[in-house]
Amino acid sequence: MAPLLVLLSVFAVVYLADRFILTGRIGLGFAGRIAMSAMLVLTGIAHFTSTDTMVQMMPDILPAKRELVYLTGVLELLAAGGLLWQRAAAIVSLLLIVFFLAVLPANIAGSLKEIEMGGMEYGPLYLIFRIPLQFFFIWWAWFFGVRRS
Predict the structure, then answer these.
(1) Burial class (CB in 10 A: 0-12, 13-18, 19+), 79
(2) What are the DSSP calls for 78-125, one per residue?
(3) What's the CA gap between 19 and 101, in Å, rounded?
(4) How many C-beta atoms surround the C-beta of residue 32 within 10 A?
(5) Is the dihedral of CA 135, 76, 12, 141 positive or negative?
(6) Is residue 92 scored above 90 in pLDDT?
(7) Residues contacting 133, CB < 8 A, separation 6+
(8) pLDDT at 33
(9) Phi then psi for 59, rounded to 5 degrees?
């Protein structure tokens, strides 16, 4: 839930600041990418501060779970920076779409294991929210990063 709140609140602040203070100098696409970047900083840092919990989320079949958690955290932080660079925004957004699809199984596994993180403790019921949320993030990356770049 925190990533969604960060995404939407940062977008609202940046959009309103652009509209009423900066008179459109930022633009809608960049405002959306700033918001996604802020969300990715939050989630990327969580890979290093909540590593043990994220390791528990990983599907049992995956090897080197801790290393994968660190790797995905680094990838999220790199993507956060890449979204802010106009020349890289479209390709980073496309890579984020692939990334969001790739990490969905960990969110599903975390819910099935009822991991105490971000609502997954509610079990499979959480997936009614989490799976559409993941597709919302995919849409956001496409709309603001590819279409509006």
Answers:
(1) buried
(2) HHHHHHTSHHHHHHHHHHHHHHHHHHHHHHHHHHHTT-SSTTGGGGGG
(3) 33
(4) 25
(5) negative
(6) yes
(7) 4
(8) 98
(9) -60, 140
Tokens of 101: 């699809």
Using alpha carbons, select from 137, 44, 132 the residue that is nearest to residue 93.
137
- How many residues can be counted in the chain? 149
Environment class of 106 (CB within 10 Å of its CB; exposed 0-12, middle 13-18, buried 19+): buried
On the question of pLDDT at 139 being above 80, the answer is: yes
Residue 56 CA to residue 99 CA, distance in Å, equals 19
The tokens of 64 are what?
A: 């080197």
List of residues 6+ apart from 149 with CB closer than 8 A: 29, 33, 86, 89, 90, 93
Nearest to 90 by CA among 37, 137, 38, 143: 143
3-class SS of residue 28: helix
Cut 0.85: pTM above it:
yes
The residue assigned the tokens 């203070």 is 21
Residue 31 CB: number of other CB atoms within 10 A? 23
Tokens of 18: 């652009």
Q: Are 112 and 121 in contact (CB under 8 A)?
A: no
